[in-house]
From TrEMBL:
GO cellular component: Golgi cisterna membrane; Golgi membrane
Keywords: ANK repeat, Glycosyltransferase, Golgi apparatus, Membrane, Transferase, Transmembrane
Alphabetized PROSITE patterns for the sequence: ANK_REP_REGION (PS50297), ANK_REPEAT (PS50088)
Name by which UniProt lists this protein: Fucosyltransferase
Length: 467
């Protein structure tokens, strides 16, 4: 039944049902029913057939998603499929049913910017536009955070049901905009407060400078003493100068050896074909569908020009539980590229998505998040692709197709392997080591305004590109 539904064979579906097949059986992988599979594959006729036979439209998968949750994510071109699910059948549709994180199909459509689907939902007599998920977010919150202006306008102007903008016990949607909105100037008050904080913290620097000026006389006396010492210690000065020359020569020698080694690495022939056996293009593991940057929109746009398989809550593909080695084995054997997209565009913000998910599993990471300079500082040379190096998703896709067709070019991104020493040590071991080192050296750094360093203006950006 599930196979027939996935391929949309209505005649076969009818034949199986007449023979006694159970429409509402769930599989053991992700809890999908035949209706889930039909929706996943956009098989409208199969959906309509099963509804006419009385399929349970409210069955939930392992994530708590009903078939309508899945349909709500689909592009507006598939609104006919949504209409079919909204058609009254023998099984009464629960349009406001929540998944495991409390989101309804309307939440999903608003998060993904499906304007036509949202319009269909709003016309349903039982739709609740004020329903909140587990984070106390309404559908309007989701639309605002994802910057889907058309959906926001539609929600605020819909005539079907009064909209309560102040329903959330936390903050209403207008105050739940991402922090970067204020840093970019959308809420000027935020910048004013930061500037004020910097001004208050600046006094410490001024006091230090004043103290330095007050002690200036002592400095002159020290200079005088220094002149006397120079008069009687010419031999010591020559020895120090000779030692300094030796240090410079040693440093120059080391730099030369390092440059020679780097050149040798560049010329080294790659003896492993990292493209061998890989038949799929781009993969992405993600379950945060509402980040503060536009990674979801960019991934969707990229998917128009090259195969992009999204695993997890935000996509149409499923693996086993999170961080299961089986998923990473599949990634390493089958895929050539991985979207190492962070959930925010902030300086120095590079997570396990880049190092562990991608580099550790022999796929080329396509990165978004930190500034390009930040990746250059920490990553092996020519080991990743930054999406900002391309003017559009279409242009990036064309380059990926080029690498996919040319194993030699593809393997250029793995020349760094075997050229250095890499220590796979638990994160907390590094943290403890650094703390002990700092305590041993008795080093202390005082930050007058920690907030300005951690989340001040320019640390994170709301726009898509740094450059």
């Amino acid at each position: 039944m599930m196979a027939a539904s996935e391929y949309g064979n209505r005649d076969l579906i009818d034949l199986l049902i007449e023979a006694g097949a159970d429409l509402d059986t769930s599989d053991k992988i992700n809890g999908y029913t035949a209706l889930h599979y039909a929706v996943e594959r956009r098989q409208r006729d199969a959906v309509a057939s099963m509804i006419s036979w009385g399929v349970d439209v409210n069955k939930r998968d392992i994530f708590g998603d009903t078939p309508l949750h899945l349909a709500a994510r689909k592009r507006d071109e598939w609104k006919d499929g949504v209409s079919a699910l909204l058609t009254p059948g023998k099984s009464r549709l629960q349009i406001n049913q929540k998944n495991n994180i409390g989101r309804t199909p309307l939440h999903m459509a608003c998060s993904w910017g499906r304007t036509d689907t949202v319009r269909l939902f709003l016309s349903h007599t039982e739709i609740d536009v004020n329903v909140m998920d587990n984070s106390d977010d309404t559908p309007l919150h989701r639309a605002v955070q994802e910057k889907h202006c058309e959906v926001v306008t539609l929600l605020l102007t819909q005539p079907y049901q009064p909209f309560d903008c102040y329903l959330s016990p936390a903050l209403p949607p207008i105050y739940r905009l991402p922090n970067f909105y204020y840093q970019e100037g959308g809420g000027g008050g935020g910048e004013g407060e930061e500037d004020k904080g910097e001004g208050e913290g600046g006094g410490g620097r001024g006091e230090e400078e004043e103290e330095g000026e007050e002690g200036g006389g002592g400095g002159e006396e020290e200079d005088g003493e220094g002149e006397q010492e120079e008069g009687g210690g010419g031999g010591e000065g020559e020895e120090e100068e000779e030692d300094e020359k030796k240090k410079v020569q040693e440093e120059e020698k080391k730099e030369g050896e390092e440059e020679d080694r780097e050149e040798e690495v560049r010329q080294r022939k790659q003896d492993v074909n990292y493209a061998k056996g890989k038949t799929k293009k781009v993969a992405w593991f993600t379950s945060n569908c509402c980040p503060t940057n536009n990674r979801m929109g960019y991934a969707e746009e990229l998917g128009k020009y090259i195969q992009v398989d999204i695993y997890g809550f935000c996509g149409t593909k499923t693996c086993t539980k999170k961080d299961d080695p089986i998923c990473f084995e599949m990634l390493e054997k089958e895929y050539k590229f991985y979207l190492a997209f962070e959930n925010s565009n902030c300086r120095d913000y590079i997570t396990e998505k880049f190092m562990r998910n991608a580099l550790q599993h022999d796929v080329i990471p396509i990165v978004m998040g930190a500034h390009p300079d930040d990746y250059r500082k920490i990553a092996p040379e020519n080991s990743y692709i930054h999406y900002e190096d391309f003017n559009s998703a279409k242009e990036l896709a064309a380059y990926l197709h080029k690498l996919d067709k040319n194993d030699t070019l593809y393997n250029e991104y793995f020349k760094w392997k075997g050229t250095g020493q890499f220590y796979d040590v638990d994160l907390w071991c590094h943290v403890c080591s650094m703390l002990h080192h700092a305590l041993d050296d008795k080093k202390q750094i005082w930050y007058e305004n920690f907030g300005a360093w951690y989340a001040g203006k320019g640390v994170c950006i709301g726009k898509d590109r740094w450059t």
